[in-house]
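Z., the sequence and structure:
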Amino acid sequence: MRLQSAIFDMDGTLLDSMYVWRDIGPRMLRARNIEPAPDLGERLKPMTAWQGAAYCKEVYHLPETVEEVYAQIEEQVKHFYKNEVAAKPGVKKVLSLLKMEGVWMYVATATDRHLAEEALQHAGIRDYFRGIVTSAETGAGKDVSPEIYERAMRRLRSNKKDTVIFEDALHAIRTAKKAGFRVAAVYDPSAEEDQAEIRALADYYFRSFEELFEAKSLE
């Protein structure tokens, strides 16, 4: 895997955090005695927190404003990011190796910037990255546009040939591949049912960052 720049998704790729996003919508609705659709977590997965709040308000006819629903989601996520979130096993080893080899790195995430900063800081990996770009800042989710990767690549002063995208989610991998990027897929339990297609699409596939490091697959 030859590269001069790397762009990393955050939740489910760098951080062990997808279970929080998967459960937050259903948990919020059940607290109101509303039973969520079985696929709500999947529907919310590619959305930003704001989009998820707007979706829940519209579909489940919540009396609060979108701003109020978002604030409730944000408060729960912020507490988790600030106090509990952890990097996945092997992440720091791989980031250290890449930094030592002179690879420039960026984070491309659907999570809002202030939350992403909190999460990366608490996980102890913020300083490995030259910056962060979010879906809210690009105005489009990873399911519909590669702009988040394009913008990160431009900020890294790189090109698609020399850039690798690290992702865990099928919708994001599809978008990145369609745009001509090389993709390293990283396994996350939240995408268990998508692994066959992810393996087929990705240029590289790893069950964990520890596997990536031990296999010396970056040489």
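The mean pLDDT is 92. The first helix runs from residue 18 to 30.

Let me know what you think.
H.
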